[in-house]
Design goal:
This protein has 19 helices and 6 strands. The protein is mostly helical. Strand 1 (110-114) and strand 2 form a beta hairpin. Helix 16 runs antiparallel to helix 17. It starts with a helix and ends in a 6-residue tail after the last helix.
């Protein structure tokens, strides 16, 4: 069995360990399924179940925030019991079940008017299947997402100069899946219906699971359970610890199933999780770490807060921006109307195109001592995010017809958001694995995704503001909708720009406590 040291010396895949290929392909197919389904979700809520924009945004925000909370649980269980390899397999199985469950479409909701009020009738059985499928996906992401990233980090020593490049390449796998998923599932929705789009996402996850099972032995003992004997020890008659863990995962699925039907509780759960995780990390840093490691851990925790702002605004892509694309943009290209859901692939396309350039640029700048520090990259991400929104607002204000906004402004916004994302997301994954002490790297990676969860929950609240109080089942006026989008996105743009500039100013202070040159 290969050791982590021998893995770090492996250069058989373009200078990287060959196990990186397995991580790349597994994550690519997992993201195909996740982003393919996500591209359809806001339309499923508003068009199939006829929820209002506000209610749909609340459900959507709760779902994607829970998706990022569960990696904390998955990271802790992986660190202490299952190991990263087994955790990824568990996550893959849960995800396959959840995505295939989404393909059970059922009857579409219908609306009618009674005494001036609109009444919406929904098929309750299929609505419950929908919530349960989301619960399987939430728990599946919890066990796969953080741990597959941890596996990438385990392939390199802490000071290996290839780390940022590896995570950038890994991020290309994420976005190759995202690009294909949104495109394929978006067109299947347009021409075949929701069940075909969701079904394709489920098949993609099965491919990802098969790839990982094929190559999981490449990761060696570093990814194996810490204490295999403890897993086999009976806690109850004929029931060992590993079975108990799986039963608790089942309880977690049922909890998420209930939470998806009570979005208001998710915000409280998220706040409590953030406070608890912060308290645990701060306490551990102050009591268990040497001064240098303490500073690095606390800086890592502080920088995670930047992404709450970033994702709160960036994640409008899959909710309010998708609805705006459907209602207000001229989507006809060369006589073909492009599905609004398919435009979620634009961000991924730019990442695939630009990620190699960023990888080369970071390495070239590092050799000359000019590479921006991690805090500076995070600040630049917020600045670019704000400029992107302001360009979109400017372009939308030029439209003579509220349903014919030129696509070029949407594309420019996605371009700037993508360059911003490349300055925070892959860099942040690398930062978390680099600054964290090895004994808690899984939990710290989970905390990274917990901060993402906070941003995603807030994104649902922001998306709800764009709905202009529309009533479920009622038609949408494109002109009123456009004015609402312009108002909210203008505020978002200025806030992001101002916070990014402030973050850039305090970068030297943050860098000092990182105890490194980048």
């Amino acid at each position: 069995m290969e050791s982590s040291l021998s893995l770090s010396k492996d250069t058989s895949f373009f200078g990287h360990p060959k196990a990186l290929v397995i991580c790349f392909l597994t994550e690519m197919w997992e993201r195909f399924s996740y982003y393919g389904m996500r591209a359809l979700l806001i339309f499923y809520l508003t068009q199939h179940f006829l929820f209002s924009d506000q209610i749909a945004a609340g459900i959507f925000g709760s779902y994607i925030s829970l998706v990022y909370i569960t990696p904390v649980i998955g990271g802790i269980i992986s660190d202490r019991y299952l190991g990263a390899t087994k955790s990824v397999v568990v996550g893959g199985v849960l995800l396959a079940v959840g995505h295939l469950g989404m393909a059970i479409e059922g009857n579409a909701a219908s609306s009618s008017s009674l005494d001036g009020s609109i009444i919406v009738e929904r098929d309750e059985l299929y609505l419950q299947i929908f919530y349960l499928s989301l619960a399987f996906i939430i728990m599946g992401v919890g066990f796969l997402k953080g741990n597959i990233s941890t596996l990438v980090g385990s392939l390199y020593s802490q000071n290996d100069v290839r780390r940022d490049g590896a995570f950038t390449l890994f991020y290309m796998g994420i976005n190759a899946g995202s690009f294909l998923g949104a495109l394929v599932c978006g067109f299947l929705l347009q021409y075949k219906g929701f069940s075909y789009g969701f079904g394709a996402a489920g098949i993609g996850m099965l491919f990802g699971l098969a790839v990982f099972l094929y190559g999981k032995n490449l990761f060696g003992q570093a990814a194996a359970p810490k204490n295999p004997q403890a897993l086999r020890q009976n806690i109850l008659p004929f029931i060992n610890l590993e079975i108990i863990i799986y039963l608790l995962i089942g309880c977690g699925i049922l909890t998420c199933y209930q939470l998806m039907q009570m979005p208001s509780l998710v915000g409280g759960l998220l706040s409590a999780s953030l406070l608890l995780a912060t308290a645990i990390i701060v306490t551990y840093s102050l009591t268990k770490c040497e001064p240098r490691d303490r500073d690095r851990m606390l800086v890592c925790l502080f920088l995670m807060s930047y992404q709450i702002i970033f994702w709160a605004l960036f994640e409008q892509t899959a909710s309010s921006l998708s609805l705006m694309t459907d209602r207000n943009f001229d989507r006809v290209i060369l006589g073909l109307e492009i599905p609004a859901a398919a435009f979620q692939s634009v961000n991924a396309f730019f990442i695939i195109l630009l990620a190699p350039l960023f990888n080369v640029a970071w390495v070239a700048l590092a050799k000359k001592g000019w590479e921006p520090s991690t805090p500076a990259k995070f600040a630049l991400a917020l600045i670019q995010l704000g400029i992107g929104f302001l360009l979109l607002v400017y372009g939308a204000s030029l439209a003579a017809d509220p349903a014919k906004v030129a696509l070029i402004w949407l594309i420019l916004m996605y371009l700037l958001h993508t360059t911003g994302e490349l300055c925070i997301s892959p860099v942040g994954l690398s930062m978390t694995s680099r600054l964290s002490t090895p004994s808690v790297v899984g939990m710290m990676m989970g905390c990274w995704f917990l901060a993402s969860a906070a941003g995603n929950y807030v994104s649902g609240m922001i998306a709800g503001l764009t709905g202009s109080g529309n009533i479920e089942g009622s038609p949408i006026d494109p002109e009123i909708a456009l004015q609402s989008y312009i108002e909210v996105y203008m505020a978002a743009g200025f806030y992001s720009l101002a916070i990014g500039i402030f973050a850039l100013i305090i970068t030297p202070l943050i860098k000092k406590f990182m105890h490194e040159s980048i």
